[in-house]
Amino acid sequence: MxxxxxxxxxxxxxxxxxxxxxxxxxxxxxxFLTWKDLWVTASSLKNGNKAILKGLTGYARPGELLAIMxxxxxxxxxxxxxxxxxxxxxxxxxxxxxxxGRKQTLAYxxxxxxxxxxxxxxxxTVKEAVYYSAELQLPNSMPKSEKKQIAxxxxxxxxxxxxxxxxxxxxxxxxxxxxxxxxxxxxxxxxTRPKLLFLxxxxxxxDSAASYHVMKTIAxxxxxxxxxxxxxxxxxEVFSLFHSLCLLSAGRTVYFGPASAAIEFFALSGYPCPTLxxxxxxxxxxxxxxxxxxxxxxxxxxxxxxxxxxILIKSYNASDKYGAVQSQVxxxxxxxxxxxxxxxxxxxxxxxxxxxxxxxxxxxxxxxYYWLRLAVYIVIAVGLGTIYYDVGFSIASIQARGxxxxxxxxxxxxxxxxxxxxxxxxLKVFQRExxxxxxxxxxxxxxxxxxxxxxxLLISLIPGAIAYFLTGLQHGFEHFICFALVLFTCMxxxxxxxxxxxxxxxxxxxxxxxxxxxxxxMCLSGGFFRSPNDLPRIFWKYPLHYVAFHKYAYQGLxxxxxxxxxxxxxxxxxxxxxxxxxxxxxTWQMNMDYSKWVDIAILLGMVIxxxxxxxxxxxxxxxxxxxxxxxxxxxxxxxxxxxAPLHELxx
Length: 651
Ligand SMILES: Nc1ncnc2c1ncn2[C@@H]1O[C@H](COP(=O)(O)OP(=O)(O)OP(=O)(O)O)[C@@H](O)[C@H]1O
Prior knowledge:
Blueprint: H1 2-20, E1 33-44, E2 48-60, E3 64-69, H2 76-83, E4 91-99, E5 112-114, H3 126-137, H4 144-157, H5 178-190, E6 196-200, H6 208-220, E7 226-230, H7 236-239, E8 244-249, E9 252-258, H8 262-268, H9 279-287, E10 295-297, E11 301-303, H10 305-318, H11 320-334, H12 348-365, H13 367-387, H14 396-414, H15 420-435, H16 441-471, H17 477-504, H18 508-524, E12 538-539, E13 542-543, H19 544-547, H20 549-562, E14 566-571, E15 574-579, H21 580-586, H22 596-632, H23 646-650
Parallel strand pairs: 3-7, 3-8, 5-6, 6-7, 12-13
Antiparallel strand pairs: 1-2, 1-4, 8-9, 10-11, 14-15
This protein binds adenosine-5'-triphosphate (ATP).
């Protein structure tokens, strides 16, 4: 075991020496990443400011795998998020992050990031997920067979060959294991061999053999690429794959430098790694203050972990390793290297097509997206048909027809929010892929719209026909088509509204409540529960009555039903005919200046407007978030923190 470890460390030493000699000029899209005096604070009303990262300095170079290690909660993910340009708006950052010596925004397609959570499409098999991703990411110029070859090879490299035909699975059904999901997430991001790759805990959920193979695959892709991974507790074998190590404790650097030299650093600082102990175990045990235990120092003396950490930090700040990091960062910063370009990928048309196919398959396999709704709608349609069965032409049928149509336009369309949870899952996948630059928001909107069309047509036509013909509404094909069209456009509208809500409200339950609330208000002002002329003018009539799609849905359905209809009013055995047009004007107070087709056109226009609004919100998020981040970035002096700065610690 010791001979084995020694051999690996010798290998590592040689490799890190050769890496030290690397010239600091970026070529062929290579990425040098530096961060200097990086502070990150989280502020909350309750707890005030809390420093998460405290003056970190470091770098990542092409051809190297940099591991960020430290106890849970030390700031590994925060450091990764900060240097990847993905820090949330609840935190403030200061310090310089440079790419090839330049200040560049690093997000949306310039790098790949494997997040800690696996956000995958549960209904797809592993093979389908990887194939679709290859088609989305790899350029159009590459033949389809080559894309498949790359996908197959990457799946094999990452050890997924036996799980290729298994569905990924999620809350709706068991699929592949957690460790396999982790590997799928990594596989999707390394398909294009990105020049800069961030991995947040790539080995969590994997056994030691799988961890080694996955990390070996990642390490083998280092040539010309910069890879940064946060990792919890690597085995000795995995540790031997790292070129550089950044060891953190409570947001401070305990060690930054060649991974192979860390053992020597700990030994020189007075905490040598015991023989036969995994070095990473030793490092983490020494600097983990969560379960504060005194650390033995000789037969009599014991020190608290906090004291040990401070000794190590002082030792690091006084060491030549610290000086080497500072001069390496300064050296890299001097170069004005290449500007990081977005990767080339499939064209907009190909992406829209592939996404439409993928979304269609997902909708067909996810019972909650449309099938359950179709079943419930059929039951409700039969209910409506039996309650209003053969409604007739009496005076009483005016109210019955009105109520039935109002129910269709309001409650049946309202239930379109039933697919919200499935949409939110799809949206999460879209957000991950968009952030990693796989495709843009436009392709997603087009794909979601096109793939939903057949299902929405199905659930408008089948339950629509049952309710329509059982009730005995106006005869004629044109009347039924108009009825189904209103139902179809209203359901599309509700789905579009929920898309907008999902892009603004971050949480599924909050989104559901918000969407239901908005529809409740619109439905109240639609002109049925209170006649249009009786609606209070402020807010309810102007503007809500005109903004609410319910107004146009009621008008379309009511005009379709009452125009040309003769109601039989019987008095003393005499039948008097009442024109439907009179009922529309007098009873329902409908706007008769334009036809029902104009109402449908307005509804269709609203669908397009809502989808464009969703696109706008997503696009605005793309530009506003980096802007918020740069506003939130302050000079180090502005960060008011109770923590002692590093140089004071070092003194
Ligand atoms: N937005 C935030 N607001 C408040 N505290 C935060 C925020 N983000 C991170 N923190 C805190 O900062 C600390 C570091 O979090 P981070 O997720 O970076 O740790 P980590 O080392 O990646 O942990 P783990 O290994 O368990 O994933 C934690 O104590 C966390 O609670």
